[in-house]
């Protein structure tokens, strides 16, 4: 594929691809959208506690896993449909939107009933039947980059959704697989910039999966915004050490507040506020 | 190797590892140090033109290749010793320091005569005789990360220098090799944060080699600073399309001024000025 | 995960995991099983021509894509159900079994009607709903390694199938993604050996996808067998340059005959015949 | 770089690039050359014990590290010049040649005095001053592939040697860095085939470094030969668990004998004997 490199510096301040998430919230414009919540929805109380804290810190979208894709079949797989109901109920209490993953086409309608944004996970980025089905559903789709997908393959996966009629697509860079075991993945900040240059899709960063380490989430979050991301999706847990999944990369509530403040400063330096 | 993850967010504002570069300039403290210049020193006039422009934009260290490590033996290999003299002469005119690469131990004394900072290139990160010799020379060393080295291997390479008595070491993240041909390398922002967490070495970012694309240098530069880098090293050319080497990743003079401005804003958001 | 390395050389001549493919054919024992056919089923005539030639060369299983997973939505996606019928009809004529891919759970029953072995493709290795559904179907499953999956993740994907009750699983190493654009993927021969060491699943090699280059298929095929593979799956086309997909990695009929001969010799050196 | 793919299957039986190693031994022709010995030369007795066993198994070249490149400066770095003398003395006793690594140009003359073949290690594949110096020495050079180098970069590194006048170059595929921690590296068998296709250099495989695991050395060795390698270099230790370095990948004497037998069978299947 011929790659056209324009002879100028890209500046992140391009806001041509704006996707409405609700009547009052869009993504891709000047304002940054923060999404946060637990890796897995465990209980109503845990979810409510996180939602309250992140809402107070400026978050507009509650994330949380109800159905969890897990490498091993012998570990916690999420609490399923009950998790969807908890997310919806807690989000409504705080005026938040819900983003959560549909693992396959058979879950799509059920997830779409309770969620405002349908997440397609990294492992499913090239599960084409799911892309096609997501292309026919009337909800925005958050398409995570496959952890071993090129930028072109990622954009082509978005085309699979688009080709079925849904143009409300948000891309999410969540780190690619590398050779250094010191981090879970490698946050590819230039991929964020490349998506912005395309001027076709908003893109957010996921510093939690990109690093896999609580102590690296903040610098990775700032870097994603500095590269031009339109928002972030972050894992937060009231007591990360007790999390059912991915606790080592979850921030506690105070740490998330610090992240929101720091990210706000970087956004401001680029002329961007929080949505 | 046991990896200790401290249970808190890392904040880039740690300035414990400060390396003096000259009587009036240090790196690793709150102030960011910009290094810039041509990939290859081609002529006195080209070098002077770049130096004048980058000096005006806040740069304190002039970079430039005299001896160039090139994949093929049949292409331009740098102008050699004459390049060292040009660098020194131009730098003196503008009160800049000089950083340039020594390809091997046989060049080290000659390079050290004219340069203020000795660069060890990515391909030489584990050429141990060069590390040992650099450990015995009385100049700061800029140690680039091998493009396929883990963070631990990189830190260990610094130990090889340290073990011979030189503690003035600056690390440089310049991108790691990945699977996506859309960029030359992948800027590993979390590696920058990891080095800062160690509190033992200053670290800078090289957005030019990390991306290999002029249009991605600015967002990568901002991301490196946002991740906690103590400075940048950037390739600049008066007419990039005519550069003898790496022209596709060199900024022109106006583009570099924009980069310096943007990087300054991100630095300010983190409480850091330009040195 | 603790990794137990037995203090002895592995020898490929371990035949503990034997999976019946039909009344008269098993895989995982001493005899090698060759699978071959076109990347995409295009027409009855093309498929019959390939089947006739590969059958004469010792192939027992006809491969062919009816539903094709393609990176772009704007290129040939396979001829669909008609392709399944062609595969079945041609295979019956020559006494061959059929292996073909099911892209998603919605196709599984239809594919299982016509195919003897259900293929799960590399991009779907962690599409868990498909693994679970394949675990409940009464047919052998060919599980390709994700091009980004570790050996442990691959074995865990097989566990997802096993956990639902289907123990007729054949693994297929088809190359992992690397940094060198000179080949499509990197054939991981040690992964083949690792699977054999586990003594739980038969494993075959796919030299076509592993290399992506016709001129490298033969040495890669020999290497897979030498590493201990229980068979191969190879793309063949009567006129590769006219293939609808992946023509650059397809062998023509004469080339496949040479491959079968050469592979037979390597197998013989290891005490293994052709099934 | 334009890549010319010839429209035919490569067959390993191309013996156009033959390099004389001594008056009575060449590499690159039909006969396979085995090289073996300890990772590090530790004592005269250890080296002699290995040499006696591998000589009896058909080995013609004794390998052994005198100067060891080590990631950390705080571990065993080899016994140095004494190691060279031990290698020479033991090799002479059994009529073997010696291959050992020169870490830098400053060691080259000293190594060349005692060794018959100068090894350039993986980390030094692009240390150009060493390549140039090796190009001016009157001995064959064993050029290991950088674990992060593309095939083109590797061939270009050989050009750096050639360009200074030395055409006795043997390439060595020793595994490339991948994302799966289950093995130390990934043996790239297609790279071996690509080198053979070039018909310019002989190429051998290093199954010890490629896998890093004793239990995978045998299948990797067979795979390298099956892909067309002209020989192997293998680490052997009388008591691997007591080795000063890399013990986990060293074969013991009985295991090496089994490897030589198995490799001989695969070679025979391809019409190749042991030199």
How many helices of chain A in DSSP terms? 9
Structural class of chain A, by secondary structure, is alpha/beta
CATH superfamily of chain A: Aldolase class I
Number of domains of chain A: 1
CA radius of gyration of chain A: 17 Å
Q: Which pair of chains forms the biggest interface, and how many residues does each contribute?
A: A-B, 59 and 59 residues
Based on the coordinates given, report the CATH architecture of chain A: Alpha-Beta Barrel
Distance between the termini of chain A: 36 Å
* Biggest pleated-sheet summary of chain A: 8 strands, parallel
Low-confidence stretches of chain A: 1-8
Q: How many E strands of chain A?
A: 10
Question: What share of the residues of chain A lie within helices?
Answer: 25-40%
Strand content of chain A: 5-15%
What is the molecular shape of chain A? Answer: globular
* Oligomeric state: homotetramer
Provide mean pLDDT of chain A, rounded.
93
Q: List the helices and strands of chain A in order.
A: EEEHEHEHEHEHEHEHHEH
What does this structure look like?
By secondary structure, chain A is of the alpha/beta class. Chain A has a single domain (31-269), classed as Aldolase class I (TIM Barrel, Alpha-Beta Barrel), CATH 3.20.20. Helices cover 37% and strands 15% of the residues of chain A. The first copy, chain A, contains 9 helices and 10 strands. Chain A has helices spanning 44-56, 81-94, 105-114, 128-134, 151-162, 189-198, 207-211, 214-226, 253-269, and strands at residues 19-22, 25-27, 33-37, 61-63, 97-101, 117-120, 141-144, 169-173, 203-205, 231-235. In chain A, the strands form 2 sheets. The first copy, chain A, has an 8-stranded parallel sheet with strand order 9-8-7-6-5-4-3-10. A two-stranded antiparallel sheet of chain A has the order 1-2. In chain A, helix 6 links the parallel strand 8 and strand 9 (203-205). The longest helix of chain A has 17 residues, at 253-269. The first copy, chain A, is globular. Mean pLDDT of chain A is 93; it is low at 1-8. Chains in contact: A-B, A-C, A-D, B-C, B-D, C-D. Chain B binds chain D through residues 69-74, 103-107, 123-124, 126-130, 146-148, 152-153, 156-157, 159-160, 163, 177, and chain D through 69-74, 103-107, 123-124, 126-130, 146-148, 152-153, 156-157, 159-160, 163, 177.
């Amino acid at each position: 594929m011929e790659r056209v490199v324009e002879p100028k510096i890209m500046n992140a301040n391009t806001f041509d691809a704006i996707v409405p998430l609700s009547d009052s919230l869009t993504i891709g414009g000047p304002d940054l959208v923060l999404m946060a919540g637990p890796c897995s929805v465990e209980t109503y109380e845990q979810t409510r506690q996180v939602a309250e804290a992140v809402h107070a810190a400026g978050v507009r979208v509650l994330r949380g896993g109800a159905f969890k894709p897990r490498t091993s079949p012998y570990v916690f797989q999420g609490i399923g449909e009950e998790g969807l109901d908890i997310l919806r109920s807690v989000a409504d209490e705080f005026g938040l939107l819900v983003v959560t993953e549909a693992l396959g086409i058979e879950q799509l309608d059920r997830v779409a009933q309770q969620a405002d944004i349908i997440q397609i996970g990294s492992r499913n980025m090239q599960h084409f039947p799911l892309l096609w089905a997501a292309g026919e559903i009337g909800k925005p789709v958050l398409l995570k980059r496959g952890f071993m997908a090129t930028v072109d393959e990622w954009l082509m996966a978005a085309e699979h959704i688009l080709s079925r009629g849904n143009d409300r697509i948000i891309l999410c860079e969540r780190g690619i697989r590398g050779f250094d075991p010191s981090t879970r993945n490698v946050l590819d900040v230039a991929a964020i910039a490349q998506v912005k240059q395309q001027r076709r899709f908003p893109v957010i960063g996921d510093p939690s999966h990109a690093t896999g380490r609580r102590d690296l989430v903040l610098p990775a979050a700032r870097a994603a915004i500095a590269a031009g991301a339109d928002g972030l999706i972050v894992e937060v847990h009231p007591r990360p050490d007790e999390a059912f999944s991915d606790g080592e990369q979850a921030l506690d509530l105070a740490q998330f507040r610090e992240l929101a403040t720091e990210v706000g400063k970087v956004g401001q330096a680029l002329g961007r506020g929080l949505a």
